[in-house]
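Task card 7
Instruction: Convert sequence to structure tokens.
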Amino acid sequence: MCSAAAGKHRLLLGGVALVRGRIRWTREAMEKARDDLAPLASEEFLRNAPFTHISLIFRYGSKAGLPEIERIRNGELQMSVEVDMSASAGKSLEALTAEYRSLALKALVLVAGRFGLDGSHLSAPR
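Output:
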């Protein structure tokens, strides 16, 4: 992750391919999902956390999965989630953004539960 992005955002989204393929709109969809969820991953939310940023990596593979916590490194909570490359490849920008937003929200809920953070605002309708 870029340090400039880490300074500006508390939630960082990225991706890596585990299988061959291409998903159109990836960068745009990640940026939109990140911006949509920025108020939820606020400094207030992370106040009592043992990290200052959350990095969620979408691992494009052959199946879909749920977000997993990897480790904390240099103040960043590293997480990943497997996304089905073939199912995501033909999605529109809006559909891909909704998928990333949903997975990132699940990741935030997982973080709140695991680290005892106040996640009551995470279930608010969006």
